[in-house]
Structure formats: C-alpha cells, structure tokens
Amino acid sequence: MFTRRWVITAAAASVMAAGAASGAMAMDLPDLEGRTITVVTENAYPPLQFLDPSTGEQIGWEYDAMEEIGKRLNATIEYQNISWDAMIQAVSDGQYDVGMTGITIREDRMEKVDFSDKYMTSQMFMLVRGDEERFADAPSFAAFEDGLVGAQPGTTPFYVAVYDMLDGDEANPRIKLFETFGASVQALRTGDVDVVLTDGTAGEGYVKASDGALKLVGEPLGTEDFGFIFPKGSDLVEPINAAIASMEADGTLDALNTKWFLEYSLGQ
User: Fold this and answer.
1) C-beta separation of 43 from 50 below 8 A
2) From CA 58, how far away is CA 52, in angstroms rounded?
3) Do residues 220 and 124 make contact, with C-beta atoms less than 8 angstroms apart?
4) 267-to-3, 7, 127 alpha-carbon distances in Å
5) Cβ distance 69 to 29 under 8 Å?
6) How far is C-alpha 150 from the chain's CA centre?
7) What pLDDT shows up at residue 144?
8) Distance of CA 203 to the CA centre of its chain
9) pLDDT, tens digit, 9 for 90 and up, residues 201-235
10) How wide is the angle at C-alpha 237 spanned by C-alphas 235 and 68, nearest 5°?
11) Which residue has the higher pLDDT, 154 or 198?
12) CA-based Rg of the chain, rounded to a whole angstrom?
C-alpha cells in the first residue's frame, strides 16, 4: 500500500485560482442557478479519479475539473459510484446526469450517450512488472504465448488488447477480465496477469507509486480523447462544453495536468 502527497506549485495554484475568476468573465458562461448535477464515477483510475489510500478521500484530476465546472456554471456537484461495466448504460438510462472515468470518445458509445468536447488526449502504453524481461513491446508480447493481459470488458484497453496485441478474438483466453482497472493492476503486481494497458498519464502515476514494482514498456499503442458522458439529449452538454472551453482558454486544464501528472511526491 502506498500513500500520495500531492504538491501544487505556486504557479499552478495561481493559474487555477485565477481561472475561476477570469474564465467566467472572459467567456459568457451559462448560469445553472444552483442546479444539482449528479456525477457518477468509478474511483479506480489514478490520477483521474481514485480513493486516497491514506484518507479514503475521493480525489483526482476529474474531481478537481468537475468542481471547477460547477463553480463556473453555478451548479452543485454530487457524486455517486458505479463499476465501469455498468456506467454507460446507467447514464444512458438517465440514472445519473454525468459520467466520468477517463472515458474514450468513440462513435459506438455515441449511440447510447452524448459526449462532452474532449478535456484530455492520452496515449496508451503497456504497464508491466518492474522486472519483466520476457517481452518489451506488443509484438514480443503476442509471441510470448503464455502471456496474459488484464482488462475491463468493453473498454478501449480491452479492444486494443484484442485487435492490436492479439489475434482479434474477443474470447481469447489470454485476456483475463476484471471489474475495475485497479483490480487488474493488483493482478499484475501479484503475477496473475503479465500486462495491463493504460493511458500514459495514469500509467505514470502507477509507476511512480510502485517504487520500482511497475514500469511502462514499448511504443504508444494509440491515442484517445477523453470526454464526460451524458444521457442522450442532455441540456448539460452545451454548458459543460462552454466551461471546458473557458478552462482551456485560461490555462486551468494545463494547471490540472501539472498538479496531477507532474507535481507530486510519493512516500511509503
């Protein structure tokens, strides 16, 4: 188990503080008049959203971003938790107003939910144990016939594993399915699987937290854009897009990237 101590530089804090004040003034943002927005997440995808191991607090990039969106739109944010495999359908059914968990914007998902504009672009990498020497990239993993990859069903990493690393068979026994991303990483650490696919930013968080137990190998396997999801036809898409645009324009998104992906220290 590890603990995280998040460190924000004065420059990053200044940009984030200024963002709330200047962003709304720079752009004509909608006023949601205190409306409550119910956001559902998984809490298993550091550093985007997860539980602080030392306090149990829900923290991460997406929490900070959503709180900032709430301030800019004059809305109250409430959070619920659900597993990834149930999230898209639950949002589609209108059980929640917004879903967030590093969700890749994809056309097939747009059949069930609406997406916000992208708030982040990430590349996918192979996360392996720190002492792994049997393979070092996707081709050598495919050739390592005993190698197992952990993934969540229906996720981008699952499809990349199936079609970019293996033989295109979604029932390939080399793929072991897990309910959460965190569970797949734990299986990697204990040797139950040999690789987990993750975006580079979250992967770097796991590597730095592992004290050498994990590493990233190979070239990026693809690029993905992340967005928030909504029930089809939601009236929240436009105002949240406006808030995201204002946060990009005034540097708040960059400040969040600095806070969660660069400026932190880790201790045992």
Assistant:
1) yes
2) 6
3) yes
4) 6, 12, 21
5) no
6) 17
7) 96
8) 10
9) 678 878 888 889 999 999 999 788 999 999 999 99
10) 115
11) 198
12) 19
Give the contacts of 14 (CB within 8 A, at least 6 positions apart).
none
**pLDDT tens-digit readout, 41-88:** 999 887 889 888 789 999 999 999 999 999 999 999 999 999 998 999
- Say how many C-beta atoms besides its own lie within 10 A of residue 81's C-beta: 14
Q: Which residue type does 18 have?
A: A
DSSP for 88-132, please give it: HHHHHTTS-SEEESS-B--TTGGGTEEEPPPSEEEEEEEEEETT-
The two structure tokens encoding residue 76: 């109250």
From the list 225, 198, 216, 254, the residue with the least C-alpha distance to 8 is 254
- How far apart are the C-alpha atoms of 251 and 256, rounded to whole Å? 9
Q: Are strands 175-177 and 98-100 parallel, antiparallel or unpaired?
A: unpaired
